[in-house]
């Protein structure tokens, strides 16, 4: 086992390329390939494209000198994830995960089928020892503050209290490595701040979290705290987390569209908007999912970034940057330590 | 039992006052009493204030000629709901619910402790026959379209599939009576549109809803559909519903504040904002929870409106208007029919 991102050996793995799934995403392969080339040029780090060589070369500008890892199959965006991964052994997603497993890539990035990305990473890289279930950590940008890490944002529709405790541990380690927070504040998503509020899962998890060492548990938080600087990590089951994430995205998009509509409602409004855009643009830019670098699957033995399905070239650049950073900072080793495995057990 | 809002007898109950809890809400009693007086004046309908007569008279303008139903106790906003209702039998909330039960009021409105409002209504008015659990229906304003009814928005943290089916039935009846929709489209809140997506509760409920007569089930919807015209009623358990509601409110407030901040960032920006406000104000007004008339507890034998804790006088006016409307339209009878009780079983 030579999985990248081990606690030691960062020097070696950081020279390995980040494997980018060229075939995954609503705008694949064009935006993905363009993003991969940009990432290599801007970051000066190796990037490999995984997918059909012909499709990659057919993109304007082609691979542009990047390594191409050939994969003849594609798992479609709406394909059944488990079936897709089982049947399409030569798919770009499966091959990307294998490249990380086999030490030919330091990390993988995909904007494709989320379920299939998770399944590929889980089946090919394997779980970290002691991890019950990998979970998706999604950084929610909070303009004027560090992002809030929402975990689990959709990997596990049904969870048990001990799993949520591990999500808290992994989310804390991620917030430390990703955003440099020394002691990230961890909140448990509920319907009121009192420990007695919530469903059975939340009440039992609350009790466990109050006596979990190594994390800074600040109690229950409500949905409105996600987009605030009140908390750094919000822990929840993957069903609630995904509903909250999509509700948040939908609300922001709705209001941004309403504002943009008002800005173009007349010639006079358009002129006025020109004055206001400089003050508004940074907020809108920060809220743009393309700027966050994507979500991350925590708990597998390697760095796996799950980008938004609608990822642009810019989103891929940010994802590759984050992937490299997380490899260099030894995220996987930090996660292994966070879930309480004896240090050195697999090194 | 002469509970208001029975399928028949609308003529009589519409002459009864709406009982407004004068002591409930962050801005009680001042804004509540002012709102009740305004409602009576603007709507020309009877309104009664429930609470401490001295506190009501101490408000500027006093009761202003409205009937006062004396209640010596107050259940605090953060008080344990069940305990509060059990111990404070002479509280404004309990007395308001009794007034509806005893046929002295047509409906009740409170901006106070939500749990205690539900408990008072449930214990004093009683459940409608056949209703497993009352649920909170919250209209989410969708500028440019009819509001989306979110049910359950927080009454039941833990739910079973048959309860959710009843929420769908009650939510449909409510959307029909409240917004005049002939065949409201009902969606089930999940993490993907496919019937196979979601947790066990959602998968089992989906199956039941596909064969529930009398509702127009359109399948699973995601969080982003709440603030859209894709669906009229969104069914979920009270935990997920409350998280979604607060996430939505928090996101909108965050972005509205960011926009307002940009609008006042400089003198030039302030002038530009003056040009844009006429186009933006209607959207912001519609999204204001004070304008929706409040949430409604469905499944109890009477009309019970749960207003936002921060309700202003304007919110109370809208709540009283909706309460009167729902009494006149026979909402309670419609709900009784919707959950499948034989017509006339209690008339």
Tell me what you see in this structure.
- The structure is a homodimer of 347-residue chains.
- Chain A has 347 residues and is of the alpha/beta class.
- Chain A folds into two domains: 1-131 and 299-347, 3-Layer(aba) Sandwich (Rossmann fold); 139-292, 3-Layer(aba) Sandwich (Isopropylmalate Dehydrogenase).
- Chain A has helices at residues 10-13, 30-43, 53-58, 81-87, 92-101, 114-125, 161-179, 200-210, 238-263, 267-287, 313-328, 331-338; strands at 18-21, 47-51, 67-70, 107-110, 135-140, 148-151, 185-189, 216-221, 233-235, 295-298, 303-306.
- Chain A has an eleven-stranded mixed β-sheet with strand order 3-2-1-4-11-10-5-6-9-7-8, sandwiched between helices.
- In chain A, helix 2 (30-43) links the parallel strand 1 and strand 2 (47-51).
- In chain A, helix 2 (30-43) packs across helix 11 (313-328), helix 5 packs parallel to helix 6 (114-125) and helix 7 runs antiparallel to helix 12 (331-338).
- At the A-B interface, helix 9 and helix 10 of A face helix 9 and helix 10 of B.
List the helices and strands and how they pair.
The structure is a homodimer of 347-residue chains.
Chain A: H1 10-13, E1 18-21, H2 30-43, E2 47-51, H3 53-58, E3 67-70, H4 81-87, H5 92-101, E4 107-110, H6 114-125, E5 135-140, E6 148-151, H7 161-179, E7 185-189, H8 200-210, E8 216-221, E9 233-235, H9 238-263, H10 267-287, E10 295-298, E11 303-306, H11 313-328, H12 331-338
Parallel strand pairs in A: 1-2, 1-4, 2-3, 4-11, 6-9, 7-8, 7-9
Antiparallel strand pairs in A: 5-6, 5-10, 10-11
Helix pairs in contact in A: 2-11, 4-6, 5-6, 7-8, 7-12, 9-10
């Amino acid at each position: 086992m030579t999985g990248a991102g081990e606690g030691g050996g960062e020097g070696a793995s950081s020279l390995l390329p980040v494997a980018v799934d060229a075939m995954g995403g609503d705008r694949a392969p064009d935006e993905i390939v363009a993003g991969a080339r940009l990432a290599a040029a801007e970051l000066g780090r190796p990037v490999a494209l995984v997918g059909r060589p012909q499709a990659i070369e057919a993109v304007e500008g082609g691979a542009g000198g990047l390594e191409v890892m050939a994969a003849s199959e594609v798992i479609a965006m709406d394909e059944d994830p488990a079936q897709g991964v089982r049947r399409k052994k030569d798919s770009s997603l499966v091959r990307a995960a294998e490249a990380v497993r086999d030490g030919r890539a330091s990390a993988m990035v995909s904007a494709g089928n989320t379920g299939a990305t998770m399944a590929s990473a889980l089946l090919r890289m394997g779980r970290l020892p002691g991890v019950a279930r990998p979970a998706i950590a999604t950084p929610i940008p909070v303009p004027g503050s560090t992002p809030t890490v929402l975990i689990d944002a959709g990997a596990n529709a049904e969870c048990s209290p001990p799993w949520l405790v591990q999500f808290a541990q992994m989310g804390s380690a991620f917030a430390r490595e990703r955003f440099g927070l020394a002691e990230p504040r961890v909140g448990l998503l509920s319907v009121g701040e009192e420990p007695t509020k919530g469903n059975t899962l939340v009440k039992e998890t609350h009790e466990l979290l109050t006596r979990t060492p190594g994390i800074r548990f600040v109690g229950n938080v409500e949905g409105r705290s996600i987009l605030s600087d009140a908390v750094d990590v919000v822990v929840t089951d993957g069903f609630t987390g995904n509903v909250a994430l999509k509700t948040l995205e939908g609300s922001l998009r709705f209001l941004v569209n309403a504002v943009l509509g008002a800005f173009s409602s007349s010639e006079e409004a358009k002129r006025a908007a020109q004055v206001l855009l400089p003050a508004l643009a940074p907020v809108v830019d920060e809220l743009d999912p393309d700027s966050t670098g994507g979500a991350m699957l925590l708990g597998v033995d390697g760095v796996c970034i799950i980008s938004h399905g609608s990822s642009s070239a810019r989103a891929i650049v940010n994802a590759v940057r984050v992937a490299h950073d997380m490899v260099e900072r030894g995220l996987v080793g930090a996660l292994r330590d966070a879930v309480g495995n004896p240090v050195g057990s697999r090194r």
